[in-house]
Amino acid sequence: MDVSVLINIGAVIVSILALVTSALLARNQFKAQRHGNHVGPLVELLKEFRSLEFHRNYAFIRNELPKLSSDLGISGLDEEVQRKIYDIGYFFQLYSILAHLDVIDREFIRSLLRRRYVEAWAALEPFVRKERELQGLPGSSILNILEHFAVDLRDHPPTDMQVVLRR
Q: Based on C-alpha coordinates, what's the Rg of the chain?
């Protein structure tokens, strides 16, 4: 075999190795950047979870709201109850949106907050549906992303948190 052929084969091998190495580095960089995107929203989530007001509002939504009549929708409730509904509902909807957009890991949110999503939506659903009806809004209005995310969580078994943490 001619020396020039060996040099060309060597150059091709080196080029292929450089391409593979670049691809692996790019993939790792993408993963690192994606995980970095999770930090801000998760810090905010944890800050909110440390709030006594959040827990009181959530407990009200889960325990007391179902005792109220949904006949007048959300707008028919007193202002303080409306504030609690929107605070909790849109908090959970925000994280549903972030998970849908892959800003934060969907499985992490699913395993961390599944029970809370399901309970909150179960309490909110009659009020949201009635409000949509009263305002003549399509079914895809008012907390619609929360609805889809919560129903999906309800209909699928929870992801084991240990599996999520090992990834």
A: 24
The predicted model scores a pTM of: 0.72
Burial (0-12, 13-18, 19+ Cβ within 10 Å), 144:
middle
Hey, how many other C-beta atoms are within 10 angstroms of the C-beta on 95? 25
What does 112-145 look like in DSSP terms, one character per residue?
HHHHHHHHHHHHHHHHHHHHHHHHT--TTSSSHH
For the record, the structure tokens of 21 come out as 């190495």
Q: Distance between CA 45 and CA 107 in Å, rounded?
A: 15
Q: Is 60 exceeded by the pLDDT of residue 126? A: yes
Answer yes or no: is pLDDT of 8 > 60: yes
Q: Quick one: tokens of 111? A: 């395993």
> In angstroms, how far is CA 133 from the centroid of its own chain?
27
